Amino acid sequence: MNFLTQYRKRVSLLLVFVSVCLLLISLSMNSCSTSSYDTPVTPQTTSTLISPETLKAWADSGVVNSMGFDRVVILDVTSQATYNAGHIPGALFVNSSDIYQIRQEGPATDVNMVLDGPHMDALVQKYGIDNNTTVVFTSGAATPSAGSVLSATRAYWTFRYWGFSKNKLKVLDGINFSWQAAYGLTTAPAPPVTPSTYSVKNNPSLRIDLRSSLGDMINLAEGKMANAVPIDMRSVPTDGSYAGKRGSTAGVFNPGGDFTVFEGRLKGAKAMDYTTLFDSANNYRFKSPDVLMAMFTSVGIDGTKTTHVY
């Protein structure tokens, strides 16, 4: 009995010692970061749009520009002058021209083309991005307008095209305008960045289904693509190129000085002015899902068709 009693006491003391050690390890790990592999600050959700409040919570937790698995990078896709005038604290400047590429498509050189692999690798490496990074896209302008949203959403689309997980890509709803209204902007310089060595070759697959080639659009116009609907997103559709008004669309080789040979729209295309997707009275946030769904349905977009937007 004496032996068993001493044995039980020693086992009890050992268990207490182990428990204390585990507690100390846990406390020391939590003191380094508020995030853990079990409880990430940036959960992988299917929601692409995030609010300024959510982004502020991430920033306050310390994950913005951190080096851990839960790292968040804010990319402000705009001009250098606009970034210098005011941006979200911790946001990194991305020149809006860096998300486009001038190259040949079909018979001629064209602008606003999707980045090729080497250019995309250079972009993600410059900002220290890898497959564990949550990327938040935003943009801004001296005067709030719907046009500024295009840079942020184009950058989002580019990352999706090159195979980055949708769960790790976010767009700030209302971009810098909504953040400024809630918290204000800063003119502090961008924080230093440790470049990554990540390549889009490591992504699971290239999302070629997200881009229509010139040949695809020709087939669409000729009625050779079943269950497809073309949507013309240019502004002022009733009094511009969509309506066939001469001189509405600037040319490629001397923008502002030359114009496209033909004005008009793709055969069968419906008009939807992209500026109508946002609420100007609410810092240009996207309109509610039910309102957007009604707008899409009105031009023939539904779950049975492939939508080709231009």
Describe the structure in your own words.
With 310 residues, the protein is of the alpha/beta class. Helices cover 32% and strands 15% of the residues. It is built from eight helices and twelve strands. The strands form four sheets. The chain has a five-stranded parallel beta sheet. A hairpin with a 2-residue loop joins β4 (101-105) and β5 (108-113). It is globular and about 55 Å long.
Keyword list:
three-stranded parallel sheet, globular, alpha/beta, five-stranded parallel sheet, 310 residues, 8 helices
Could you give a short description of this structure?
With 310 residues, the protein is α/β, with parallel strands linked by helices.
Number of strands: 12
Please give the alpha-carbon distance between the first and last residues: 86 Å
Mean pLDDT reading: 85
Order of helices and strands: HEHEHEEEHEHEHHEEEEHE
User: How big a fraction of the residues is strand?
Assistant: 15-25%
- The parts where pLDDT drops under 50 for at least 5 residues are 3-35
Structural class: alpha/beta
Shape field: globular
Largest sheet: 5 strands, parallel
Helix content: 25-40%
Number of helices: 8
Measured on Cα atoms, how large is the radius of gyration? 25 Å
Widest sheet, order of strands: 1-7-6-2-3
Lay out the secondary structure:
Layout: H1 2-32, E1 49-50, H2 52-61, E2 72-78, H3 80-85, E3 92-95, E4 101-105, E5 108-113, H4 117-126, E6 134-138, H5 147-161, E7 169-172, H6 175-182, H7 214-221, E8 228-232, E9 270-271, E10 278-279, E11 285-286, H8 289-298, E12 306-309
Parallel strand pairs: 1-7, 2-3, 2-6, 6-7, 8-9, 8-12
Antiparallel strand pairs: 4-5, 10-11
